[in-house]
Amino acid sequence: VAVVLLLGFVLVPAAFLAQLRSLGVHAPVDPLAVAIWGMVLVALGTAEYLVRPTRAYGPATIAYALAILGYLLWLGARSPLSVTYHGATLALGYGGLLSIAMLVPLLELVSGILDTAEDARRPGERVRLDFPPAAV
Amino acid sequence: MSQRPLGYRASHAVGLAGTVLAAVLVAFVITAGYCATELAPGAPPFGGGRLVATNTVELATNVSVSNPGVYPIGGLVVQAQVRYGGANGSLIGTGLSPSTSVSADSSAILPVTLGVMFGPEMPSVLLTHDARLAAWFWANGTYALVFDVHLTLQGNLTWGAPFFGLAIGVGSPRPASEGSLAYPVSVSFTDEAQFPLVGQLQYTLHEASGTACGNGSIAIGVAAGGSYANGSTSYLASGCSLDGGSVSARFTSSAWLLALPSEALP
């Protein structure tokens, strides 16, 4: 899980920004900030996965979803992506895409709230169902 | 097998929906990025000059957009602006295309018309000299329904002067009636603009002090790209001298009222 998240949140964005730089295009997002956001998301996503067999899973899911929402809002504040290349300037507004993309962490958030509520009402039941004891 | 409580089932379904949506969005962004690289815009130079109002001509071009990808382009509008003297120079003309949509796997033509007004802002040098004018083009549209695209391009517009190389020459005088002098006047130029010129060239001969002391008029009729050379006679009152003088001219018709640059007489 950590490797997949590292790829998706850190390595691929870093490679994309490096590729833009090699083309002489300066993206309006700071690569260091993207890397920091990516590392935070990798840490939270990995933590969510690790605490799945515990009651911390719901709150971890909520924290992860809120962090992704924050990341998308941070990216949205930098829209449009404006690049100048060979005398042409291209401004790409991706606010519409981010609006749709925000549904993903919002759904995660709902899922986390439901899990937190159910875990509080039925302590241990989700763990028994998701991680049944191995048959002897 | 025990039945999972409703809250957990709902949580699982919502989480799964989020995962599916994330996968769909990643696939969408990758394919939209790839298809965007296949877009191929093109624009021939402006041409087809057409007189649309007094002192106003319209130049036109057709911008083509080929969209072989699977995502449409909506609300595509192209604007153009031409200036003399750089970004802060005199505004020569502005243009606009109608809003057009380009469906997936298709192409479209956007007619862009550039209105050029020969008004007070038009530097008179452009009436008699060709030039390369700075042109700016803006394209706005929505790509793949969610991406707002704003493209700015800078280019050049080759300007052909309607009275290119205008020369008004005054020959040697000969005596005329009542003590006046008759001066042969010759007019020549090439219409390098993309529209014809039909009207009257009215000229005034000035003494070195600026006092007008003779005038005349020549009928002009020249097609776009054609050359013109003709002459007439102007009568000056006795006492007038054109030594060190100048000639001013204006072109008039039902559609034109152009003040041409003043020229010094040899």
Plain-language structure description:
The complex is a heterodimer of chains A (136) and B (266). Chain A has 136 residues and is mainly alpha-helical. Helices cover 68% and strands 8% of the residues of chain A. Chain A has helices at residues 2-22, 31-50, 57-76, 95-101, 103-121, 125-130; strands at 81-85, 88-93. Chain A has a two-stranded antiparallel ribbon with strand order 1-2. In chain A, strand 1 (81-85) and strand 2 form a beta hairpin. In chain A, helix 1 runs antiparallel to helix 2, helix 2 runs antiparallel to helix 3 and helix 3 runs antiparallel to helix 5 (103-121). The mean pLDDT of chain A is 88. With 266 residues, chain B is mainly beta. Chain B has two helices and 17 strands. The longest helix of chain B has 31 residues, at 6-36. Chain B is rod-shaped. The termini of chain B are far apart. The mean pLDDT of chain B is 88. At the A-B interface, strand 2, helix 4, helix 5 and helix 6 of A face helix 1 and strand 9 of B.
